[in-house]
Amino acid sequence: MTTNKTPSASTPRKGGTSGKSGRRHPLASVALIAIGLLFTGAGYAALSTTTASATTDASSQQTIDEGEKLFAANCATCHGLALEGSDVAPSLLGVGAASVDFQVGTGRMPMQMQGPQAQKKPTQFTEAQTAALAAYVASQAPGPAIPAGEVLDASGDAANGAELFRINCAMCHNVAGAGGALTEGKFAPAIKDVSAAHIYEAMITGPQNMPVFNDMNVSAEGKRDIITYLKYIENNPSPGGVALGSLGPVAEGLFIWIFGLGAIVALTVWITAKSN
After folding, report:
1. Any idea what DSSP says for residue 114?
2. Annotated binding site for heme c
3. pLDDT tens digits in sequence order for the chain, 276 residues long
4. Which of 20, 59, 78, 114 is most buried, judged by most C-beta within 10 A?
5. Can you say which residues are annotated as belonging to the binding site?
6. What CATH code is carried by the domain that includes residue 95?
7. Does residue 174 sit in the same domain as residue 131?
8. Cα–Cα distance between 31 and 35 in angstroms, integer?
9. Cβ-contact 86, 76 below 8 angstroms
10. Residue 79 shares a structural domain with residue 161
């Protein structure tokens, strides 16, 4: 008599493989969660970057559009709607944002009247409006940008800046930055109380009769040193006493002739009167 045996639950399956072999590795869940977090973070970062770029671009375009409106209302009469210039004003194509920031930011533009050169005066536009005008002009053609960063911190080498200033600038602006007369009613203005940004912009754009000092003439570090020197003499009084306008031997000689010689004449008259 044959007896059929039913295999028990503990009997190994064919091939010697137990029922526990189908389970996942304990670290598999951790790996899946890590991969999910990685992809989620990457997607969020990409979306955030795209949104930020779109916001920046929109803001820049809005600034340019505002500048275009201001230009059409205040500048196009002389400089032309397409910045092409006219018989009374130069073209602004390629002058860059730095030139606009200097001319408008110092009040030289718009000009009150025609003359040998534009006079510095109180500004007629706010800083935001000036920035908008600069952005619009810069958007039409490439040109020098508005400087920023450590080149404006006045923390360079004042001694080197003094040497560079004497070589490149003092013949017009005076060694102490007091300014001086030029030909045909033109003049080099005093550089006292001028912002570091406007000094740098003047060097890279060459306003009025001033030559352009690009990085081949004076490096960015050299311009920083010049600004450092100018701010040093602005913040430190004359070591020789009364500066007399810092105009050099002309002012000093005139002072001696008027007051010194006058005092000698007065003393001579007094001695003569007393002897009689």
Report:
1. -
2. 75, 78-79, 169, 172-173
3. 444 544 444 444 544 444 445 566 666 666 667 777 666 666 654 544 443 333 334 449 999 999 999 999 999 999 999 999 999 999 999 999 999 999 999 999 998 888 888 999 999 999 999 999 999 999 999 999 999 999 999 999 999 999 999 999 999 998 889 888 898 889 999 999 999 999 999 999 999 899 999 999 999 999 999 999 999 999 987 766 666 666 666 666 777 788 888 888 888 888 888 776
4. 78
5. 75, 78-79, 169, 172-173
6. 1.10.760.10
7. no
8. 6
9. no
10. no
Domains in the chain: how many in total?
2
> Domain range holding 115?
45-143
Query: Looking at the whole model, is its pTM more than 0.85?
Result: no
* In a domain? residue 175: yes
Is 190 part of any domain? yes
Dist CA 177 CA 166 (whole Å): 10
* 71 domain-assigned: yes
Instruction: Give 196's contacts (C-beta < 8 A, 6+ positions apart).
Output: 152, 153, 154, 227, 231
Residues 242 and 251: their CA atoms lie apart, in Å, by 11
Burial class (CB in 10 A: 0-12, 13-18, 19+), 257: exposed
Given 90, 115, 143, the domain boundary residue is 143
